[in-house]
Amino acid sequence: MSPRQYSVDTKCLPSSCMDHPYGVQPALGLFAVGSDESRSVRSTGLGSLAVLPDEAVLGILESLPAADLARLSVVSRFLHVFCHHDDLWKGLCLEELEGRWDYQGSWQETYLSCAVPGYRPGRRKPLRVAGVQSDLLYTPWLCASMAIDAAWLEVDNIERRAGLSLADFREQFELPNKPVILTDVVTKWPAMEKWSRQYLEAAFEGSHVLVGDQPISFQAYCKYADTNRDELPLYLFDKTFCSTAPQLADDYSVPELFRDDLFSLLGADRPDWRWLIIGPVKSGSSWHKDPNSTSAWNGVVRGSKKWVLYPPHITPPGVRPSEDGADVASPVSLMEWFTQFYPHKHSVGCAPAECVLRQGEMLFVPRNWWHVALNLEEAVAVTQNYVSPANLPHVLRHLRSRSPALVSGCAAEARSGLYDTFTAALRRQRPELLQAVEAAEAAAQRKAEEQHKLAELFREPAAASGSDRAAATSAAGLGSKVEGRRNGCTAAAVPTAGASSSGAPANAVGFSFGFQL
């Protein structure tokens, strides 16, 4: 399972804290009267396994087939509640049924309807159990049940522009790597008038859409979106929509600001780049940076989305990327992040860029910015990633790693060679751009080497005495010049191997994730 912060903000508790369908309570000491009973239920229900934390218990249950979960659910009150945790059955549906599911109000009912011949969904009612306290089970239910807090929508600090020329866009936003909202692009798309649910159902009739990389019918996804009770609802994120429903490609157009897309030089070999995005309220994209150091645009055709973005050098609170950036650990759901970490959004020393992106608006997402998007209602959007001449140096630097873990959007066997494939295409079709990048990199390398040589001149050997240093510099004919510069504090401005006076890296920063909520 993904890492989870197991604490519940008491301000978010519903009026009755016993509303969980199986009677689960949060383990926060809020119910002191029931704490002894809870320990007894856990000890009796798990026996020698009671020493395990809830995460370990659930991890064991995740490895079991459905039949074993059904058997264990009648062993004890504690196991009855855990074995009915709907996320367990969601995993079984997604792993075993592979898109051949018809949502029936819960994932357990959905699985049983598909796997058990003659099963009639909706006849069983949850059995409420007293004495089970678990944040692991309670937090997902709370996040799925609570409403979106209006306070999350108050800040809207991303500039909105209309009539932006390509030159102004590059100078004011793309080169400074700064987000902007375009208000006069999506409004001109035919999709604004056409893309009702009925129109999309007709467009995808007889074909499938991709939901969690699994193909299912569009009608089945709509049924799920309308009735789901998930903490993090499944998101339709379809990279094949223009081939499965070609008429949709005619309903929108790439804005002039983003048309010079250099990845298009690769033709059919380009990495994944455009997606149709549809999802219900509370669905969305969790914290990430866009692939391969590309920039992106996201245009909303229906609904609205809350966006939060941090610049590349600022890791959002509650997010823990791996050292190489290939993996990201963050709260399981968007609602959990907003509930627990949004109030601490300034704790990383930087105020994020935020907005509510409304129907008919388009957001430019700069390269390498951390971002998250939460659907405030059912939303339909189109997004594309692209490589412009302004962003080309950064994309090439990323691809040059040739790491299959860092390069994405294409077959695993093609990732390590994407840099060579892309530079070959540039050399054939846009050689002036590649030459400019190579010249700039060569100039930067020469400058770095010169600075390194200068730093070497001013580095004082740690073992040398003061008289030895004076003699050495005098012998080199530099004593008076060096001392004069040092007395004028010029030498202090020269970096010494990137270290601060404390011995730590000069750009080192500390950060604690131990928020007390």
TrEMBL record:
Q: Which residue ranges does the record assign to the JmjC domain?
A: 243-403
For whether the record's keyword set contains rRNA-binding, the answer is no
Query: In which compartments does the protein localize?
Result: Nucleus
What molecular function terms (GO) are annotated for this protein? Answer: cis-regulatory region sequence-specific DNA binding; metal ion binding; oxidoreductase activity
* Pfam families for the chain: Cupin_8 (PF13621), F-box-like (PF12937)
Q: GO cellular-component terms in the record? A: nucleus
Q: Does the keyword Transit peptide apply?
A: no
Q: Which domain of life is it from?
A: Eukaryota
Using the record's annotation, list all stretches that form the F-box domain: 46-92
The entry's keywords? Iron, Metal-binding, Nucleus, Oxidoreductase
* Similarity comment: Belongs to the JARID1 histone demethylase family.
| Name under which the protein is recorded | F-box protein
Q: Organism source for this protein? A: Chlorella vulgaris (Green alga)
